[in-house]
Amino acid sequence: MFKRISTITLFIALVIFGFIVNGCGTKSPPEPGRYYNKGKGFSIKFPGEWEIKEGPGQEEPAVEATSPWENDADVFSEFIAIYVDELPGTTSLKDYFNELNFNTENDLAHYQEKERGNISIDNTDTKWIIFTYTLAEGAMQCISYLLIKGNKAYMISCNSEPEKFDMYRSKFKEAVQTFRFE
Known about the structure:
Elements: H1 2-22, E1 35-37, E2 42-44, E3 51-54, E4 63-66, E5 79-86, H2 93-107, E6 109-121, E7 124-135, E8 138-149, E9 152-160, H3 165-176, E10 180-181
């Protein structure tokens, strides 16, 4: 009988110790190299050597990561920007994507769609589109991912010069696949 009580006491002590060590169900500590934006409800791992700059998140991105200069002749830094938009009421991903695409097509000079598709990011349906456009600095190519969680729309926009797009596409994809809702 005494041995059985000791075994039960030991089991209870181990369970209590496990809760103490693991923080009673709290989230794990921040992952090194991961950018967290608790206010906007997301995290992402950008390429390690890229510079990260937070923004106000209204018309500007909530965060933007830019590539280092490749050489002295480099005139453009590739970048990944995340925009977060508060949605009024219930908006479907399809409707929001179509509205955003329509506005982008009308707002950007020489806009030309290349591809579009669907994937899953953090177990969430996501639409993506690749397009080219022109800025004062020159021609650009972009892959944008759009996903909705609750009343927020998240757009992950990855941009480079068209001739470098294929070189950066794997870095863009790798970063986007690390996007998580927090």
